[in-house]
Design brief:
The chain is mostly helical. It folds into 2 domains: 1-88, Alpha Horseshoe (Serine Threonine Protein Phosphatase 5, Tetratricopeptide repeat); 103-167, Serine Threonine Protein Phosphatase 5, Tetratricopeptide repeat, CATH 1.25.40. It has helices spanning 2-11, 15-28, 33-45, 49-66, 71-85, 88-101, 106-118, 122-135, 140-152, 156-166.
């Protein structure tokens, strides 16, 4: 109900009221991704980009944990928002919390690795991909991503081996 009320406030551009309703809704139900999404969109309308990025990231993590079909859209919006403000550590903190909850989820490890890779943290990205491979050694994509990291680390022979395993 509070989320719907918050949505109504955004429709008439009463953003402070919308934010108040949405925060109240999240106090009652903190694991509700739609509330985080709407709050993020409202903050984006107010050009509060860093806060919006944080909230998109939370929505993405919640979608990821719930395996909701919309997860991928929010994932890319969250990453894009964080990259715009250049805050790699915040993305990683969210992934680390999600991994604490579901350490057996190879996709979380892959996404963590991609984030590290995109920020030039190649050795750490490799470690995430290695962890993902321990969970899902038949995933061709992980071997391919591992090959890319090894290539950037000038480990050409290992990169070739990874690329071979990805085929």
């Amino acid at each position: 109900m509070l989320v719907s009320k918050g949505f109504s406030f955004t429709g008439i551009e009463r953003y402070p009221d919308a934010i108040t309703c949405l925060y109240k809704a999240l106090e009652l139900k903190p694991y509700f991704p739609k509330a985080w999404e709407l709050l993020s969109a409202t903050l984006l309308d107010l050009q509060r980009y860093e806060e919006a990025a944080q909230h998109y990231q939370i929505a993405e993590i919640l979608h990821s944990l719930n395996r909701d079909d919309e997860a991928f859209r929010y994932y890319y919006e969250a990453i894009y928002s964080w990259e715009e403000v250049g805050v790699c550590e915040n993305i990683l903190a969210c992934y680390d919390k999600a991994i604490d909850i579901r350490p057996e989820d190879s996709e979380l490890w892959i996404n963590r690795g991609e984030t590290l890779y995109n920020f030039g943290k190649y050795q750490e990205a490799l470690e995430s991909y290695e962890q993902s491979l321990e969970l899902d050694s038949d995933n061709d994509n992980i071997w391919y991503l591992r090959g890319n990291v090894l290539l950037d680390l000038d480990k050409y022979e290992e990169a070739i081996t990874s690329y071979d395993k990805s085929l």
